[in-house]
Amino acid sequence: MPKSKKRILLVEDNPDDRELMRVALEENRLVNEVLVAKDGEEAIEILEGDEDFALILLDLQLPKINGHEVLRFIRSRTRRVPVVVLTSSDEDRDIVESYDLGANSYVRKPVAFDEFLEATRQLGMYWLLLNSGPPARSSG
């Protein structure tokens, strides 16, 4: 069965972190199409029209609608799309709430570029190459 190009939704308000993720994906040769939402409201608008993502990378500290609310919205519509919370918060309450709302993983953003590069490589390797997700929903 041929694999289609797997898309990633990156929900991140910080332009520096968006650029860092773009560079890290490129450096790790993860050539997946990446759609970007710059705030929680934009993420929900994208997801209302399209749930066909191989992976969602979700920051928690977002303007307009926070990451936990976006995660709640995602899980009200689908449990099939893996959601990795990728955030600077290491607060226990954020970790617990993320998992309670259905996050598949919680990763604290590394500060150093080399560590960020390695974290991105491992995330991509696992979620996009090793993990076998459910088949796409049929439209019939």
- Distance from N terminus to C terminus (CA atoms, Å) equals 20 Å
Summarize the helix and strand pattern as letters. EHEHEHEHEH
Average pLDDT confidence is 86
| Annotation, overall tally of beta strands | 5
Low-confidence stretches: none
User: What would you call the shape?
Assistant: globular
Strand order of the largest sheet: 2-1-3-4-5
Strand content: 15-25%
Q: Supply Rg.
A: 14 Å
Total DSSP helices: 5
- Helicity, in percent? 40-55%
> What's the main sheet like?
5 strands, parallel
List keywords for this structure.
globular, alpha/beta, 140 residues
Molecular structure report:
This protein has 140 residues and is α/β, with parallel strands linked by helices. It is 44% helix and 15% strand. The protein contains five helices and five strands. The protein has helices at 15-27, 40-49, 67-77, 92-100, 113-130; strands spanning 8-11, 34-37, 55-58, 83-87, 105-108. A five-stranded parallel sheet has the order 2-1-3-4-5. α4 links the parallel β4 (83-87) and β5 (105-108). The relative contact order is 0.17.
